[in-house]
Amino acid sequence: MSATVIDGKAFAAKVRGQVAEHVTRLKDKHEITPGLAVVLVGEDPASQVYVRSKGKMTVEVGMKSVEHKLDADTSEADLLAVIDKLNNDASIHGILVQLPLPGHLNEDLVINSIDPAKDVDGFHISNVGLLGTGQKSMVPCTPLGCLMMLRDHHGSLSGMDAVVIGRSNIVGKPMAQLLLGDSCTVTIAHSRTKDLPEVVKRADIVVAAVGRPEMVPGDWIKPGATVIDVGINRLDAPEKGEGKTRLVGDVEYDSCAAVAGAISPVPGGVGPMTIACLLANTLTACCRANGLEEPAGLTA
Ligand code: NAD
To answer: Pick from 229, 247, 246, 228: which is nearest to 237 by CA?
Structure first.
């Protein structure tokens, strides 16, 4: 069997196109422009790259993009003051504080100071609680992207056995909640799970979010299962030249693709969906803030 490749790059482009159409309609009909503010503290190179591409894509879909770049030694009080200002700015519908923050800043405190209605990352404790109780919330972008890809491929997920490997607050746990919300039978596996291969072998859907390069081999996969690889791991690639690297997922792609029914690659799978879902969340937040109907198919 050779798996269908779930093309996250193409799907993300489609989602961004849908967001852009809604933004045009909001501007034409209601004279509203959704606004996304990204706050970056410090000069972490990877975070700088993420923030740049978020800003670029925000503008590309017709939204207002605001960036606040703060020094690495910014005090908690000063950061909270920036967030407070954004919370009270009616032209800003989404606020994202780029993580990780420098060590002297309390991440939980900072995230929980964002207005939950503008928390487009879905990390505020109120949104976590709303998602866990099946209520309308802002949903974390990466798991939302995975859910959209799974729904697009399968239609209904009802009754399917899903195994999520990883229990982080940003991917594993919200992913499990979303799959439960779509009536899957969900198992969350983690570093202490006994006999992980047997657990994974039960799954119709495997979502790997661990951060360990190629840890899931093909012989853990049930024939025909759908495999979503969230992992982003950078490995040295001397074969490409000195100092070169390559990206791999948490899944051993070739051996899994030989057994699975469908699989998302790395790169070009979940990664591009994350920013597309950030834009979708900003649009959703803007519609909610203005009492307008939410865009169909772009939320959980
Ligand atoms: P994390 O380090 O917070 O969590 C990793 C989880 O994996 C933990 O819950 C841990 O229990 C589990 N784990 C560790 N070793 C394990 C093992 N041997 N067997 C089973 N489980 C094990 O990581 P995270 O933030 O959830 O990210 C996971 C991966 O997803 C990383 O590679 C990260 O780069 C990637 N990621 C990608 C995107 C994207 O946009 N595509 C977004 C977020 C994270």
So the answer is: 246
Phi/psi zone of residue 233: left (φ > 0), alpha (ψ -120 to 50 degrees), beta? beta
Residue 177: active-site member: no
pLDDT at 277: 98
Residues framing ligand 1 (Cβ under 6 A): 142, 165-168, 170-172, 189-191, 193, 196, 209-212, 230-233, 270-271, 274
pLDDT tens, position by position, 13-43 = 999 999 999 999 999 999 999 999 999 999 9
* 98 is a catalytic site residue: yes
CA of 172, closest atom in ligand 1: 26
CA of 232 to the centre of ligand 1 (A): 9
Residues of the chain with pLDDT under 70: 1
pLDDT in tens, 63-82: 999 999 999 999 999 999 99
Q: Quote the pLDDT of residue 2.
A: 85
Query: Whose Cα sits closest to atom 15 in ligand 1?
Result: 191
54 is catalytic: yes
